[in-house]
Amino acid sequence: MNSVNVLVVGAGPTGLTLACDLARRGVSVRIIDRDVKFTTASRGKAGIQPRTQEVFDDFGVVDRVLGVGTTRLPFRRYHRDQIVSEAIPYEANDPRPDAPYRRLLFVRQSLVEGILRDKLAETGHTVETGVELLRFEQSAEGVKATLGSAEGSEEVTADYLVGCDGGASIVRKSLGLEFRGFTEEDRKLLVGDVEVDGLDPDAWYQWYDMERGILLLCPLADTGTWQIQASPPMDADGVPMGPSLEALQSAVDRITGMPIRLGNPTWMSTMKRNVRMVDTLRVDRVFLAGDAAHVHPVTAALGANTGVQDAYNLSWKLARVLGGADDGLLDTYERERVPIAEWTLKTACDAGDLIFEAMLAGKGGAEKGLTEESLQLGLHYRGGPLSRDLVEGGALRAGDRAPDSPCPGAVDGAATLFDVFRGPHLTLVGVGAGTAAALAAVAERQPGDVRTVLLNDHPEAYAAEEDRLVLVRPDGYIGLVAAADDAQSVLDYLAALDSFALVED
Q1: Considering only the top CATH level, what class is 388-498?
Q2: What is the largest CA-CA distance in the chain?
Q3: Of 42, 189, 201, 280, which one has the greatest count of Cβ atoms within 10 A?
Q4: Res. 504: pLDDT tops 70
Q5: C-beta atoms surrounding 397 within 10 Å
Q6: pLDDT tens by residue, 460-489
Q7: pLDDT score of 349 more than 80
Q8: CATH architecture group of domain 182-274
Q9: Alpha carbons 149 and 153: distance in angstroms, whole number
């Protein structure tokens, strides 16, 4: 029987992020996907949020991801054949020293998945396509899974199994967890990838017509294809039509009254408004992440981003436990990510309301759902089980996202803190010259686990009246803020990670 540390079910952005991060930490991992071929469909095309771009920076692939998308896409709103308004979301969001990525990246999901598969291949791992999870059972020793493929069935044992297998997750269903929430069957959109003749591919064209319906036509960067979303037209019997080129063309004709012709559809589907989540992300040795754990409207562009960040939170904890830390550390995954899932569902629904209000007032379209909050740079774990504040005041608290900053004089040629953070380690940032002795003491005691960096000044993002130590977790969040000379608290925190037991409130 084959064995592995972690079996990842599902090779979308969530599963690929998890597999990439585990593999670079030296964890034995297998990632399977039931699809025989990798999809080229756009699916979640709009887009990659700045916080996720920071994750890809850590992986060393952000330049590749940025290279296949665009951060400048005008939202051009029409009524019939007349332009009503045009807006460019986040146009004023120039990079800052604390946040080098501040704009939404519009890119088709399949291209991002290809880049992550290439990154995974650099570690000697590949996605096993056409392989389906048939069933699993678990015990105190591990998980026993049965996999099926064209070659037959296979028994695999794993220390842990993670379901990243989407809204219809077989892992979630097998666990018997309630996917609480609702589905609005009467609010559907036809969606597909098509070629478009009659429009220049220089904007996201949008029609919000209370009588005729909704139509969105978005060019997919450097592909020659567009993603279309459209209210289903009615057939001769007054029944909403399903996805077909005929139905999509009928919607375009009815809503726009313009000589726009569609052709060569490569993917078509129906999109429903789902708002659902589980309250449990861990059942013993089995975890859920991404759409397997939470689904929501596409407004605010949060779906794949939240899944990537689920995986980023879980992966370093799995690796640490497999390296000898207490299993209780894994309980913090659920404690930290369930509130984020709740925030995501609420934010996506609120964004839909903002768009609808703007549509009724004739004062905008999809751009109204994109706010500073939806960039996800303000998400935090303050008050969480791994967040410890030992000093008062200052710009940052334990649980916050660790900002970037120039760091002149850092080792290994690092120019910014993000350069220092990049990799599977923790990072101890000394804010102010008075932290030098504590940095040296921690580096001597934890030579492989923690990288240290001294900021002689107090940059704006790390501003405080007094010097202090800031310990940054492998996923880019602050675990500990301590006094400048308090090396022992840093060492105690690291030891606590390895003997962690979650205390229920």
Answers
A1: alpha beta
A2: 79
A3: 42
A4: no
A5: 18
A6: 999 999 999 999 999 999 999 999 999 999
A7: yes
A8: 2-Layer Sandwich (3.30)
A9: 6
